């Protein structure tokens, strides 16, 4: 009995001695579903590592105000989440999930992600970090002050877009794309600096867009990804058992997160409607016009793409 107590004490002391504490920078506020997912991930990591890896989640970009990719590369933070299409440094690879109308459903988006994952992993490695998991946002739609039923309705739109792809898309459709940090969008809508936004149902809900806009057109523009990465120096400092436990948590979190995105879309749409926002699908005429633009954009995107990216789309289209 005494020997058993000594063994337990020794194991406990060993575990306590190897406890690693890390901070995770979450881009959005505490109520955002991606941030909630990050908190769940931290709990799973603590559980699966038997308390030897403790991750503290900091919401609202409180740890990183600039480029999250660079912050993790330099070790400013151990982990962060990031909106992949908006993150500079990822080149064409980071734009894959934000290409218009490539994915037309959650299942399409997940399949595209799985095919693209090796390219994401390779790109993140160049930036001294490891991809742990990625979760899609609900499909991007168009928030406006008027009904959008045909391509000519884009004339006069000053639209906040979230990356180069969405900016090109709006400009080609006849509107004017405006680059703004998310924190500036609501006030810009108030002042008229912009009068429309390309983003998800979830972001519209979080931003209370019904106070400044009246229509949400479900054009299903894209299913952009939010990723969580860890600095490779931090990663390599972990034991093999800790790494395996974190990968187990990440795999589980990815499954939970994709379902959470679907649930969030339903909740957000109901919330928007409950506050008086008019929600509609793209008309056949509008869809046809937007598809033509999307096809042109894809051709331009692939024109100077490397073989890895071209292979992704060849595989995806099988």
Description:
The protein folds into two domains: 164 residues, Bacterial extracellular solute-binding protein, family 7 (D-Maltodextrin-Binding Protein, domain 2), CATH 3.40.190; 123 residues, D-Maltodextrin-Binding Protein, domain 2, CATH 3.40.190. The chain is 49% helix and 18% strand. The chain has a six-stranded mixed beta sheet with strand order 7-6-8-5-9-11, sandwiched between helices. A five-stranded mixed beta sheet has the order 2-1-3-10-4. The termini are far apart. It contains eleven helices and eleven strands. Helix 5 crosses helix 10. With 318 residues, it is α/β, with parallel strands linked by helices.
CATH class of the largest domain: Alpha Beta
CATH architect. name of the largest domain: 3-Layer(aba) Sandwich
CATH domain fold name of the largest domain: D-Maltodextrin-Binding Protein, domain 2
The overall pLDDT average reads 93
CATH H-level name of the largest domain... which superfamily? Bacterial extracellular solute-binding protein, family 7
Order of helices and strands: HEHEHEHEEEHEHEHEEHHEHH
What are the segments in which pLDDT stays under 50 over at least 5 consecutive residues?
1-17
Shape: globular
Strand element count: 11
Helix content: 40-55%
User: Any idea what the radius of gyration is?
Assistant: 21 Å
Largest sheet geometry: 6 strands, mixed
**SS element count, helices:** 11
How many domain modules? 2
From the helix content, strand content and strand pairing, which structural class follows? alpha/beta
> How big a fraction of the residues is strand?
15-25%
Record the strand order, biggest sheet: 7-6-8-5-9-11
